[in-house]
Amino acid sequence: MNRPADGSTATPGDPRAIHVSERVTIGAGLPTFVIAEIGYNFNTLDEGLASIDAAADCGVDAVKFQTFRAETIVTRDVAFPPEAGGGNQFDEFKRYELSADWHAQLFARARQHGLVPFSTPSHQSDLPLLERLNTEIYKLGSDDLTNLPFQTAVARLGRPMIISTGMAYLWEVAQTVEAIRQAGNEQLVVLHCLSNYPIKDLAEVNLRAICRLAAGLGVPIGYSDHTTTLSAPVAAVTLGACVYERHFTLDKRLPAPDAALSADPAEMRRIVALIRETERMLGDGRKRPARSERDMRRDTRKSLVARGPIRAGETLTTENVTVKRPGHGIDPRELPLALERAAKRDIPADAIITWDAIG
Is residue 291 exposed (0-12), middle (13-18) or buried (19+ Cβ within 10 Å)? Predict the structure, then answer.
């Protein structure tokens, strides 16, 4: 979990890295922290537990749920917008409230797999339960981005925080980040997010905002993905996302609000594999020959070569010197230094010219 693909132990080069536990650190240059957002994509406890088992098999680092009570999250008469399926919000939230006992069993199952379990609370009254469960992270949703009293209450608990930023301007995000810092919490990750779900117009995803958030906020940045693509995780990680979150379901056919639009185990397994492949390909950014190019560099670069026989004492000129593979001899960049020098010995036609052969 949260280790480079080559098995080495990574250490964060950025002092702003987030230390979740002894085994998990989030930050630039570290393996992407992959979250399966199970949310409330299940109808029974057994389905929830099986979802955790499936997520673990996919290779994710964490599973996330949602902690709410209908009475404290929404008024009774508001509907979801059409792109979110419509329907009464209060009724849906009431149906999918998770009991304290279910929370405890879900968290315990995740920990048995070595996963980090955490949740998105929606109200200060949700916090005592998550504190009793010793949650390692708090995730706050885009709907609470500007709810500064709630953000600061969570910040004062002193645990790492992940905040989503859907529907927001940069100045709103910056204001919330500053409020969390003023509350004494520097353990913060900000997720770029587009709150529509699923996203129908990919032109609205605006993944370059990941770079803008990183430059403007000075905290680790991630991406909460509401697309149904396999390209978004690759692009997000390439742009610097060190956290990736995707809705997850045991089965798209489950009668749960987000199931049909979530990644199933086959998709999540592919997403994790693509992220790990991308990380390996990104490297450290230093431009230098790869180890695997050593022989190729020697055998396919070019050298100065005798165009025809060059006798001992004969001067090298552009008439008797050419450039060919391999790169065992004098580099073509040094042709001006080699010209007008004399051969110390006979150089056969098509022979590589080396410095010890000329004076």
Answer: exposed
Of 330, 321, 319, 316, residue with least CA distance to 350: 321
Closest alpha carbon to 213 in 243, 183, 182: 243
DSSP element (H, E) containing 155: helix 148-155
Distance CA 180, CA 183 (A): 5
In order of 22, 162, 263, 339, the CA distances from 139 in angstroms are 19, 5, 20, 68
Q: Secondary structure of the chain: what % helix, strand, coil (to 5)?
A: 40, 20, 45
Total domains in the chain come to: 2
One domain for residues 249 and 115: yes
Residue 339 maps to a domain: yes
What pTM, to 2 d.p., does this model score? Answer: 0.90
What is the residue range of 341's domain?
Answer: 291-357
The angle, 0 to 180 degrees and rounded to 10, between the axes of the packed helices 45-58 and 100-112 is 30
Residues 168 and 43 in one domain: yes
pLDDT digits (tens, 9 = 90+) for 9-52: 334 345 579 999 888 999 998 999 999 999 999 999 999 999 99
260-279: burial string, b at 16+ Cβ within 10 Å, e else? bbbbbbebbbebbebbbebb
